[in-house]
Amino acid sequence: MSMVKRIGVLTSGGDAPGMNAAIRAIVLTAAHHQIDVVGFKHGFIGLLQQDYQPLMTHHVDNIIQRGGTILKSARCPGLHTVEGPRHAAATLHELNIDALIVVGGDGSFRGALAIAEHYQGQIIGVPGTIDNDVDGSDMTIGYATALDTALDAIDKIRDTADAFERIFLVELMGRHSGYLALAAGIAGGAEQIICPEFGPLDPHNLQHIITPIQHAQLLRGKASYIIVVAENSYPGGSSALAEALTNAVGVECRACILGHIQRGGSPVGADRILATKLGAFAVELVINGEHLQMAGEVSGTLQGYPLAKTGDRSKAIDPYLVRWQQQIGRN
Ligand SMILES: Nc1ncnc2c1ncn2[C@@H]1O[C@H](COP(=O)(O)OP(=O)(O)OP(=O)(O)O)[C@@H](O)[C@H]1O
Ligand SMILES: O=P(O)(O)OC[C@H]1O[C@](O)(CO)[C@@H](O)[C@@H]1O
C-alpha cells in the first residue's frame, strides 16, 4: 500500500474543458489506492484561505461531461507575494497533505514551484489550459474542445462573410501563443492566419497582410475572406486591425472576438480521455514518490516532465502546418 495518505488538488488559471474529468480521474484513482483527496477551492486562493472540501467518489459522479471546474478556478495575486507561498505550504502541512496536484497552465506551475520552496510534501502538475502552451505534453486538457468551439464559430462567420462578401478578422485566445489560432485557421480554411510566432505586426507596415487580400480580390473578385488572429497580435486588438485594414484596402472589414466562449462547453471526447489519463497518471506519479513533475503525454506515451521546464516555450507550433500555410501563400 502507498505511504501517501492524503492528496490535495486544485484547479488554477484559466479554466479549461476537461478539468472536471481530471479531478474525477484523480479522485477515482486515489480511492482505488486508499488515498484521501482534499479539493482546494478557487485555485491557490483555497490554500491561502483554507477553503477546501473532502472529495469522495460520489462528488465526481456525473462531472466528466461538464465544462468549468467543480473546484472553481482563479488567478491568485496573493501567491506572488513573499508570504503567499509560505502561507500556502503551511496550510498543506496543517492539513497533513502528503502531496499536492495542481491542474493548470505554466503560470500555475510557477506558483506550485514557489510553494515547493516551503513545502515538505510532493507536488505534481497536470496541464490544463486551452492555450496548449505547456512544454512536456503534446496537448493540454481543454485545447481540443476550444479548437472545436473556435471552428464552430469560424464556420458560422464564414456563412455571413460569404453572404456579404466581407473580410472578417476572427480573434482567438492564446495569450502569447498561436496553437489555437494556427489550428483553427487551418481547419477553418482561413485565408490568412496571424499569430505571435510569425513575428510582431508593425501598424505602420501592414502590406504583407494587405497584398494577399488584394491578390485574392483580383483573382476571385469580391468574396468572403477570413483572417484568424491570435489575441495580443496587434496593438488595440483585432478591432483596431480591422479598422486599419478597412482604411488600407477600401473594403469594410469586421472583427469578431470569440473571447471566453472558447473556454466553455462540454469537453470533447479527446479532452475527456486526455484528462482521465493525465489525472490518473498524476496520482501514480505521487505514489511512485515523484516530485516537481508534470504528468504529460508525448507521442502517445505518458511521461513525467520537470515542472520547472514547462514554461520554456520549446514546444513549437506545428512546423508542417506553418510551412504549408506559407507555401500556399495564406499567412
Ligand atoms: N511566478 C509566480 N510565482 C507565484 N505564483 C505564480 C507565479 N506565476 C503564476 N502564479 C500563480 O498561478 C496563477 C495562475 O497563473 P496564470 O494566470 O499565469 O495562469 P496559467 O496557469 O498559466 O493558466 P492559463 O494560461 O490557462 O490562464 C496566478 O494567478 C498565480 O497565483
Ligand atoms: O479570463 P482571463 O483572466 O481574462 O484570462 C484570459 C486568458 O486566459 C486564457 O484563456 C487561458 O486560459 C488565455 O488564452 C487568455 O489570454
UniProtKB/TrEMBL annotation:
Pathway: Carbohydrate degradation; glycolysis; D-glyceraldehyde 3-phosphate and glycerone phosphate from D-glucose: step 3/4. Keywords: Allosteric enzyme, ATP-binding, Cytoplasm, Glycolysis, Kinase, Magnesium, Metal-binding, Nucleotide-binding, Transferase. Its EC number is 2.7.1.11. The keyword Magnesium applies. The lineage of its organism: Bacteria, Pseudomonadati, Pseudomonadota, Gammaproteobacteria, Alteromonadales. PANTHER family: ATP-DEPENDENT 6-PHOSPHOFRUCTOKINASE, PHOSPHOFRUCTOKINASE. It catalyses: beta-D-fructose 6-phosphate + ATP = beta-D-fructose 1,6-bisphosphate + ADP + H(+). Pfam families: PFK. This is 6-phosphofructokinase. Belongs to the phosphofructokinase type A (PFKA) family. Its main location: cytoplasm. SUPFAM superfamilies: Phosphofructokinase (SSF53784). Residues 6-286 form the Phosphofructokinase domain. The keyword Nucleotidyltransferase does not apply. InterPro entries: ATP_PFK, ATP_PFK_prok-type, Phosphofructokinase_CS, Phosphofructokinase_dom, PKF_sf.
